[in-house]
Design brief:
Blueprint: H1 2-6, H2 10-25, H3 28-32, E1 35-37, H4 49-57, E2 61-68, E3 73-79, H5 82-85, E4 86-88, E5 94-96, E6 111-114, E7 118-119, E8 125-126, H6 132-139, E9 145-149, E10 170-172, E11 177-179
Parallel strand pairs: 1-2, 1-6, 6-9, 9-10
Antiparallel strand pairs: 2-3, 4-5, 7-8, 10-11
Length: 184
């Protein structure tokens, strides 16, 4: 799946990402959210910067992950000015500079945008293998809408799961918004 995603041109990914961003920004959950958590895209992932910028322009609090490799977990930091605050850090992913860290509990986010490699229509996902987002999602208390941004070709028939896997509620592609089946 990664090879297929990586085979797409940057222009094609930009166009698809713009369609996905438009769809996700129109979701009631996003409109109503005061705080959102989003990953900062890397490589051929769905681009998230336009979502970050529009949320900031609307006065929303945007929090982004910072990888704590020692403890194998994600911490979250408020992002106010992406152009000034981000730099390549862990795994080469853009994260807030050390002097720009503003820790925020993920519990404050009403919406959590989740990265990954592949998904099924039940909301199950395949991540990158480090387990960082799995542990993060599993630790959430209360209700947070977990949304995946996905290219249509990343949707597969079935993802094998374990008792530790927590599905997302919605998957947004360039063509549709999938509300994950509750018949898991």
């Amino acid at each position: 799946m990664l090879a297929r995603r990586d085979s797409k041109s940057s222009t094609e990914l930009d166009i698809l990402s713009a369609r996905i961003a438009e769809r996700v920004r129109g979701l009631a959950e996003m409109v109503e959210a005061r705080t959102i958590s989003t990953y900062i895209d890397t490589g051929s992932e769905v681009r998230t910067m336009s979502i970050v910028k529009s949320c900031l322009a609307e006065g929303k609090v945007v929090i982004v992950p910072v990888t704590d490799r020692v403890n194998r977990k994600l911490i979250f930091s408020e992002l106010r000015d992406p152009a000034k605050e981000l730099e390549p850090r862990t795994f080469g992913i853009l994260e807030p500079k050390a002097e720009c860290l503003r820790p925020v509990s993920l519990e404050q986010a009403q919406v959590v945008l989740v990265p990954g490699v592949a998904w099924d229509r039940n909301g199950n996902r395949v991540g990158y293998g480090g387990g960082f987002y799995d542990r993060t999602i599993n630790s959430l208390k209360g209700y947070h809408v977990k949304i995946v941004l996905s290219y249509e070709f990343q949707i597969v028939n079935k993802i094998p799961t374990t008792a530790y896997d927590k599905p997302v509620e919605k998957i947004v592609t360039e063509n549709e918004v999938i509300t994950a089946s509750r018949n898991r």
